[in-house]
TrEMBL record:
Domain of life: Bacteria
InterPro entries linked to this entry: Aminoglycoside_PTrfase, Kinase-like_dom_sf
Gene3D superfamilies: Phosphorylase Kinase, domain 1
Pfam family, one: APH
Organism: Dactylosporangium siamense
Protein's name according to its UniProt entry: Aminoglycoside phosphotransferase domain-containing protein
Domain Aminoglycoside phosphotransferase: 25-214
Amino acid sequence: MSGTGKLWPVGWETLGQWGEDAARIEPLAGGVANDVWSVRVNGQLAVGRLGTRSDADLAWETGLMRHLDREGLTVPVPIPTADGRLFADGLVVMTYLEGGPPETPADWRRVAGALRELHRLTQGWPQRPGWRSSTDLLHAETGTRIDLGAMPPESVARCRAAWARLTGRQTCVVHGNPNNPGNVRMTASQVALIDWDESHVDVPDLDLVLPGNAADLDDGAHDTAAQASAAWEAAVCWKDDYAVRRLAEVRAV
């Protein structure tokens, strides 16, 4: 029960910290780790995402969003609570972005341009707390949702051989899942990248394995990135059917 007498679902009572008129509207498609709803705060349509990320993790993500917004990239911007916090008890409230998914090769080329701007703006960015990059996993066993100890040794060897090809590259923030059309909102004037739940610091080419090779990577770069990306998704999702399919794309050592 909130201070206004509303009966909230478990966890969502925190939404009352965005003001007495704050309200949930309807569920939205979101990541498997979160409960995502359209909400209304301060009379405006917004998006609320409730999950179990740590405060350090959410501080990293919301700080990144504010930086990218200040630099002119179109991203969901955190809306502060009534007392000025960017998140509370695992809940983040963000601006709602209009638009539809990319559909044409020209659309995907615009997405590639937005991703390259993200990478330019975040060179040298600190790693998300608790995460590992693909090349960190040449030596580390775990990082957030990845546990290489749960995979067969032969599968780990294949993944690490793919990631080893990225050794020595400059790193930056990667979105983590931009080839999913649902994570992009396009209008005639802007490209918005949404759902930053998988973003972390890694090699930028991992973001550029896009439909139709929209980022125009040369054959060698595209092969390296595609292999490393398939290995990453196999490790993150192990061991559901999708992970098994992605691992099958990674060449044997």
